[in-house]
């Protein structure tokens, strides 16, 4: 398993589908940011499912792969979002 940080920028017509799909695999952090562990099989399945939703000519999904969550040092300022307006 590897730890991933994923950010996406997709057309608003597809944002709900992408967000719901990602919530099945990763933990939602903020707006279009997800993170969590994925096994190789899960990553492959997620990539296939994303490929069937996004339009590569206008959408973007970026995966940052890290050996574990222990190598990521992060901090937060301000209040986290209490809802995702485009999805709920």
From TrEMBL:
Keywords: Antiviral defense, Endonuclease, Hydrolase, Magnesium, Metal-binding, Nuclease. Mg(2+) binds at residue 9. The keyword Magnesium applies. Its cofactor is Mg(2+). Homodimer, forms a heterotetramer with a Cas1 homodimer. CRISPR (clustered regularly interspaced short palindromic repeat), is an adaptive immune system that provides protection against mobile genetic elements (viruses, transposable elements and conjugative plasmids). CRISPR clusters contain sequences complementary to antecedent mobile elements and target invading nucleic acids. CRISPR clusters are transcribed and processed into CRISPR RNA (crRNA). Functions as a ssRNA-specific endoribonuclease. Involved in the integration of spacer DNA into the CRISPR cassette. This is CRISPR-associated endoribonuclease Cas2. It comes from Thermococcus eurythermalis. The gene is cas2.
């Amino acid at each position: 398993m590897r730890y991933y940080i994923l950010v996406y920028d997709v057309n608003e017509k597809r944002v709900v589908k992408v967000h719901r799909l990602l919530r099945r695999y990763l933990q939602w952090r903020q707006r279009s940011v997800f993170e969590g562990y994925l096994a190789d099989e899960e990553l492959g399945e997620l990539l296939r499912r994303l490929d069937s939703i996004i339009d590569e000519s206008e959408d973007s999904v970026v995966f940052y792969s890290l050996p574990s969550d222990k190598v990521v040092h992060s901090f937060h300022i301000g209040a986290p979002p209490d809802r995702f307006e485009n999805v709920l």
